[in-house]
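INFO  loader      accepted 1 record
INFO  loader      residues=281
INFO  predictor   begin
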Amino acid sequence: MGDPRTAPDPHAHEHEHLHKGLPAAHAHPHAHGDGADHAAEHDAAIAAHWIEIEHLHFRYPDGSEALRGIDLTIARGEKVALLGPNGAGKSTLMLHLNGIHRPTHGSVRVAGGAIDDATLGRIRAEVGLVFQDPDDQLFSPTVWEDVAFGPVHMGLPGAVVHDRVEAALSAVGALDLADRAPTRLSIGQRKRVALATVLSMEPSILVFDEPSAGLDPRGRRELIGLLAGLHQTLIVSTHDLELARAAFARSVVVDGGRIVADGATASILDDRALLLRHGLA
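INFO  predictor   done
INFO  writer      dumping tokens
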């Protein structure tokens, strides 16, 4: 067997080059890696910028400017708390992630694609919104039917719908509630079921608005455990600083339509002057 140090590279070949000032073409050897390597690098680059927002400005029809130059990058699988006072622009920012709002200026990219009319369906399949009030997402006679609603309207086969509903309810610890009427559940139970309605559509990104609002201490502890167990990219708007400390390594503070702080949650929450300046303490 030949010496591996001198064996020819199966991907190596020569290209001829003409250089200014040289009399004739000559060859340089080149080696190209597998196409799989390039694909892996491309996928890794997209994963590192799973959500990419650049210079985002947004004005409402009445002329009020809600976002004033947001730049934000979130990697796939990252869990980020979005902090800020009321009226800071957090909800407006979140509604750009699935195309409910469109930028007045700037760009929003999700899962490697810009949000436009052509990609809107795919983007909305990637981004699941979980509203503060679970009753905004629950309207069917039973929990099972609510959680099945999305997959059914995606046109999935019955067996796939069944498996997705079962998996989603199991993920939030609510499989035993499948036959119950949502109106008969506690606020904590309804919040879990509302999350299951989104999980059943298998998004890669989950966006929550004030998930701990209205929960008692036990429900809040259960929520923290649930968030910790989710593998999706999470963006959670909250005023609950202790929830942010317990569940999120990174926090972004928004005020006046701008990002005023972005970093380790512990460092941000230990900066009392920062919290006071931006209505968080």
